[in-house]
Automatic annotation (TrEMBL):
Keyword Transit peptide: no
Listed GO MF terms: biuret amidohydrolase activity
Domain Amidase: from-to ranges: 45-449
UniProt protein name: Biuret hydrolase
Enzyme Commission designation: 3.5.1.84
Gene3D superfamilies assigned: Amidase signature (AS) domain
Cited PANTHER family: GLUTAMYL-TRNA(GLN) AMIDOTRANSFERASE, TRANSAMIDASE
Organism: Entomobacter blattae
Hydrolase as UniProt keyword: yes
Superkingdom of the source species: Bacteria
Top class in the EC scheme: hydrolase
Keywords from the UniProt entry: Hydrolase
């Protein structure tokens, strides 16, 4: 265990599917295992170190573990994720628990009457929700610096951010405390923390996964998805969350051949200010496949501005009435951003939506040249907590708003995007913390993403960061 990580839990990077197999064959006793997980997550020292966990779902977890134990005792198959613990970003409904979305404004709301739909699917497959996880308040930010619940720190170096807004979801997985978690991604909130923590994440095609029971941010951009340490787990989780019957689940060996998949680097805007090591790896990866070496997306500045305006307008509208009556209960920085969204004229919002329509047509033209595009997720490693800035065209800019520089424009198109951790060999000239890439495909072409990611992993370009 690294001296940089000061908590009593020995990281365990066992894939979810392997945990389920061990529970089914009796190697691992589900109730004992879940008690150990709950105890680890409840560690006061861990809480102070990470700031990743907002609540422990002890009763829910124990009841589910007992049910799985009973199923096994009676010869019933509990499902493909039997006994696998997971956490949820604190905007997913958990039955009997108040969903706070990272804000004290919702703390006195009545408890949810049922799990969010995607949580129900995972529980049906045998998985066990054990914790709710920290996030930027109302998911508006890229660093998980929360006034009410604290800042989530990067498990690979606690002096650095974990990213956001699904920072707690990424941190517990990167530390090996949980095999997977759920996050949401409006403008990059799965992809950014996945990259900065060195794990895998997925923003599926917009609208593919149900958002029932998930607290909204900007409804025309919101998506949800899993984060985990294993590409094979990511593929399994995506299928389960898509409501695939257990008998029809596939593994990575059954994905498409990459022989005819055209892959290109996304150039221009997506090469500016990027860490040289990351940029070189992207060039090397794209050179392995058919397709143009690089494709450029025009007017990326304007596209990102449109995504920003749509987010601000929809977020501001959602909170308009509450801002009038309880403005003092919001994080001051968040309050200003939401208020600005409320004051945005409708003509500006409509103009941003017109840009969105144009962008989708433009991106469709890019996919006439390539099936998968590769871009950086963030420009560099996670910023330090005492230096919360990123470089943007030679200027230091606030990380809270600008860590999503390369993710936010792509959100506008509704495409599926897979966040993949770059393999970083040990060496004096290699980055000390994780870096990640985005693989982008046409809507409903997640199979292309998994095929390319699998191939790049086999070659050795991609791997979960494991220097803890």
């Amino acid at each position: 265990m690294s001296a940089l990580l000061s908590h009593p839990v020995t990281p365990s990077l066992t894939p979810a599917v392997e945990i389920a197999c061990n529970i089914k064959n009796g190697t691992l006793h589900v109730q004992d295992f879940i008690e150990h997980v709950l105890e680890s997550l409840s560690s006061r020292k861990l809480e102070k170190t990470f700031g990743a966990v907002t609540s422990i779902l002890t009763e829910t977890a124990q009841q589910q573990a007992a049910k799985i134990a009973a199923d096994l005792a009676h010869g019933r198959d509990p499902g493909p994720l039997a006994g696998v613990p997971f956490g949820v970003k604190d905007l997913f409904d958990i039955a009997g628990k108040t969903t706070t979305a990272g804000s004290r404004l919702l703390a006195n709301n009545p408890p949810a009457v049922e799990h969010a739909h995607c949580v129900q699917l995972l529980v049906k497959a045998g998985a066990i929700p054990v914790a709710t996880l920290n996030m930027d308040e109302f998911a508006y930010g890229f660093i998980t610096e929360n006034t009410h619940y604290g800042t989530t720190r990067n498990p690979h170096n606690i002096h650095h951010y974990a990213g956001g807004s699904s920072g707690g979801s990424a941190a517990v997985v990167a530390a090996g405390l949980l095999p997977f978690s759920l996050g949401s991604d409006t403008n990059g909130s799965i992809r950014v923390p996945a990259a900065l923590c060195g794990i895998w994440g997925l923003r599926p095609t917009f609208g593919h996964l149900s958002l029932k029971g998930v607290y909204p941010f900007a409804k025309s951009l919101d998506t949800i998805g899993p984060l985990c340490n294993s590409l094979s787990d990511l593929y399994t989780l995506y299928q389960i969350m898509s409501d695939t019957h257990p008998s029809k689940l596939k593994d990575l060996s059954q994905t498409l051949s990459t022989e005819d998949i055209r892959v290109s680097q996304l150039g221009g805007w997506f090469t500016e200010d990027v860490h040289p090591f990351l940029l070189q790896r992207i060039e090397d990866m794209s050179s392995l496949f058919k397709g143009p070496s690089s494709i450029e997306l025009p007017y990326t500045d304007e596209i990102r501005a449109a995504a920003f305006l749509i987010t601000a307008a929809e977020g501001g509208t959602l909170h308009h009435d509450t801002l009038k009556t309880h403005a003092d209960m919001y994080d001051p920085a968040l309050r200003e951003r939401l208020a600005a969204g409320c004051l945005q004229p409708s003509s500006t919002y409509l103009m941003a939506q017109n840009i969105r329509t144009w962008f989708r047509h433009t991106f469709a033209n890019l996919f006439a040249k390539a099936d998968v595009l590769i871009a950086p997720t963030c420009s560099d490693i996670a910023p330090r907590l005492d230096t919360p800035f990123v470089t943007l065209r030679g200027k230091a800019m606030p990380a809270r708003a600008h860590l999503g520089r390369y993710t936010q424009p792509l959100s506008l198109g509704g495409m599926p995007i897979l966040a993949a951790p770059l393999h970083i060999p040990t060496g004096q000239n290699t980055p000390p913390l994780p870096l990640g890439i985005q693989l982008i495909a046409q809507p409903h072409k997640e199979n292309h993403l998994f095929a390319v990611a699998d191939q790049l992993q086999k070659i050795g370009f991609l791997h979960s960061f494991q220097k803890i």
